[in-house]
Structures are given as structure tokens and as C-alpha cells.
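A favour, since you know our C-alpha cells better than I do. Could you add the entry underneath, on a fresh line?
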Amino acid sequence: MKSKYWVALSSIEQIDSGFIKRLYNYFGDIEAAFKASRLDLMNIDGLNIKKAENFLTLRDKVNPDKVLEEVTRRNIKYLTLEDENYPVMLKNISDPPAVLYYKGSLDICNLEKTLAVVGSRRASYSAKDELSKIISQFAGTDICIVSGLAAGIDSEAHLSALNNNLKTIGVIASGLDFYYPASNKHLYERIENGNGAVLSEYFPTFEPLKFRFPQRNRIVSGLSYGTLVAEASLKSGALITANLTLEQGRELMCMPGLISNPNTEGIYKLLKNGATLVTSAEDILNALNWEIKKVSVQKELSLLTENEKIILNALEIEEKGVDELISITGMSVENLLTDLTTMELKGIIKQVGSDRYKKV
């Protein structure tokens, strides 16, 4: 299985996707690239001898079968540059990730209608509120929201997508062993449980180090047909993503805000330089030349388990407590609580009060 060599190379923390792709392009075979000798590497034009020898030292410490086992043991899925299901838009950027690790499902996301949303971690209430309104105008459609699962605008984008029956992809700047920020763990879980995917180019054990966040941004914009910047100061990660969007030949859009807010200085700079002004979902549709279609509610309901359908039916008219649901469904306390938690993560139901639930 060739894919284990992709995973093995990506598990070496001291090399990046660019180096892996360089080896692959030269040898034309990932196994040959992994097993390259010193003499083989010396034949690659421009490859520094010290870097080649450092790679060989690190490579010899890696067992491809064991690192692949580490990934599968964690129930993490992955795609390599050789896989036919690797996202086409991402593969077309200048430096695509060698491997994409993910939890959840990319298959349920419409990768032909992907919109990146980025902005300040310290977003104003008004910016989050306006972004929520714009995303709500896409409710129940096949548009997929892509963002970075950071605090502020990112979190609002994912949450608004979930609350409006949209699929969403969270691109993180660490391996999938980590939740960052920790306060977003619940959001990670909701996305992974039937609402999209959380993905990373980093091997599961790689920590969320500072330099990885700007690297992550190229994937957020690279997966997407366009990027909406909701709020950004002149020195921010959102502006990095905006510049990457333009470099990748994608559509750049901005949501205006209060002129007096320092977090809008970057926005107005981008607008003056030709970014599309967005005040509604229609502006995004026009900029991207998209026609949207509603996702069938019946299709969504068909994905529920039998127990989930029974619970949902019990909550059809009004909210109910756990004791009432036990009586109506005939389920055990343990099974009911498990299903209630799963359904809440999927965004199907919502807890109100200490032990009461209602249909969303």
C-alpha cells in the first residue's frame, strides 16, 4: 500500500509538504522517494547536501507500517496527493498539502460550492451578528462553509453554518490530537458528527505551534472558490488569507464594518484595492456566479438511526424532559442519553434547561 509512505513522510516534523512533493515529482513514485539513497538525493538539482543528509537521518527512524497504524488507531481518515478524491481546488494551488488528515466526512460536503470565511479572533459583536445573518440566508442549501476553527469570526462562521443546516469544513493548525482553542471542542465534535469535516495537513501528534497558523491559511482559501473577510486589522492572519486568495486566483470579498473599529482597517484597504463589497448572501452568489439549491429535508432525515427518528418524533410538537422521553420511547436511560447527546452534536435537537430537549 503506497499511501503508508505518504503518511510516513508527513510524520517527519522537520520536513514540509513542499519537500515531500519535490521528492515525489523527482522519483515519480512515493515508495521510491521514501527509500531514496544518499546518491539518489544528490542527483536532485539544487537539493542542499546537509538537508538531504538530515532527511536520511530522520527517515531511518520512521517505520511506515507503525505510523500508519497510529493514524488508523485514532479513526482518522486521510487523503494523499495521489488519491482521486483529493479536493481538486486544493490540488491546484502552488503548494498543496502532501497529506490531508480528517475526521468526519468530506463526501457530504459539496466541494464545488465552498466559501471560506475568515476574520478577527477578537471580533466585535456587530461583525459576528452581521456574519450570522448573511450565512443564515444560505440556510438549507448545498453551500459549504470553510474556516479555521479559531475563536471569533471562524467560530461564528462554523456555528452559523451548523445552525442553518449547512455543511462546514474546519481547517486546523495542528494534528487532530488537539482541540485549539480548547473551548471549541464541542464545535469540533458537532462538525465531525455528520455536519462536515475537521481536517489538517499535520500528522496527528503535531502541536498547534505559532508558525503553523499562517501555513494553515493557504488550505482555507485553497479549498474555496472565494473568501469572505468579515473583520480584519491591518496586521492579521485574515489579511494573509486574503492575499493568498488573490494569489490562488480566487474571488475576494469583504463585509464592511464601523470605520472607527481598528479591526475594519484591513477591510477597507482590501475594498479600496478591488475586493467585492458584501452586505448580503446575494452579493456572494453574484460574485461567484452561483445558483443554489435547497437540500432535501427528507434526505437529511433518512440519515438518522431508528432510535433518533423515534426521539425526534416524540419532540415534534413540544419540548420534553428525559423522564417523559423514556416513557414515550421505551428506551433505557443509558441509550436515551447517548442518543440525545449524539443528536445534539448533529444539531438536530437542543437542550433547554437541565434535562429538557426540543427539536431544532
